[in-house]
């Protein structure tokens, strides 16, 4: 059975209890597969990137047919940190809901709207309105050169600067290390594994450290960061409490020896071959 997330942020827990560890978040409009109907309140779900956790049923629209249609029709994503979806295309109107960056919506073609507004279809069947420049197509990696795509991925990651660290988070409300890197790629139309390791079946491949370029990923024990170039990287650090920039250069003010000296792998979406030891 499939379902659509209908809450701004749906928590995924390690066990079917709100007191259990938060391991991930599913954002509005994302879809999940239901693996187990646990009880009247909880289901065990799997995300599109094969992460599993327990989610409250009230956060989901559980309907196979509507989810299949949504997967085909909902081809746009919110790129604004927070976006009010309004009942009318004017700023003074009442909001239907508020969505965070990464939420998935339908874009409805309308000829009667002013250029700044877009009609938004929601999985509930409701229609709302948002600023057109707050949404983008989900498959933005198409027709981009490698340099353009690398730059876009880096700029997307940097758009989360100063976001508070949240274990299991992946929104502007709070985000963790793998949440940051996976969302930077997702917002550019690429699904990578949402964890601090390279996983078979996903497009990140290992490369030598000397080949690293901006947009590539640095892996540490239990941690992941994105390389910016010039020996700098952006990451969401439990120790730093927020998304910040640090350096691999020991002469730089932002140098972190604990990370610079414990790199376990470099991963790249752009590598043609996997590096074998």
TrEMBL record:
The protein's name: Peptidase
Domain NlpC/P60: 147-267
Keywords linked to the UniProt accession: Hydrolase, Protease, Thiol protease
Pfam family, one: SH3_3
Keyword Repeat: no
Family membership: Belongs to the peptidase C40 family.
Organism: Lysinibacillus composti
Keyword rRNA processing attributed: no
């Amino acid at each position: 059975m499939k379902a659509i997330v209908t809450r701004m942020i749906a928590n995924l827990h390690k066990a079917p209890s709100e007191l259990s560890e938060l391991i991930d978040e599913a954002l509005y409009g994302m879809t999940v597969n239901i693996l187990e109907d646990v009880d009247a309140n909880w289901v065990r779900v799997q995300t599109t990137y094969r992460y599993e956790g327990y989610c409250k049923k009230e956060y989901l629209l559980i309907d196979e047919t509507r989810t299949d249609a949504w997967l085909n029709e909902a081809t746009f994503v919110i790129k604004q940190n927070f976006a009010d979806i309004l009942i009318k295309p004017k700023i003074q109107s009442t909001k239907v809901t508020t969505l965070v960056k990464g939420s998935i919506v339908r874009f409805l073609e309308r000829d009667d709207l002013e250029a700044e507004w877009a009609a938004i279809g929601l999985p509930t069947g409701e229609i709302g309105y948002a600023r057109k420049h707050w949404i983008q197509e989900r498959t933005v990696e198409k027709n981009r050169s490698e340099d353009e795509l690398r730059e876009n991925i880096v700029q997307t990651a940097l758009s989360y600067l100063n976001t508070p660290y949240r274990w299991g988070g992946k929104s502007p409300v709070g985000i963790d290390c793998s949440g940051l890197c996976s969302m930077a790629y997702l917002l550019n139309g690429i699904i990578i594994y949402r964890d601090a390791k390279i996983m078979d079946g996903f497009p990140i491949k290992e490369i030598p450290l000397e080949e690293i370029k901006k947009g590539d990923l640095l892996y540490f024990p239990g941690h992941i960061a994105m390389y910016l170039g010039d020996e700098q990287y952006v990451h969401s650090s439990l120790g730093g409490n927020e998304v910040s920039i640090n350096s691999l250069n020991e002469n730089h003010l932002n140098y972190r020896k604990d990370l610079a000296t414990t790199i376990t792998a470099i991963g790249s979406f752009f590598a043609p071959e996997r590096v074998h030891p």
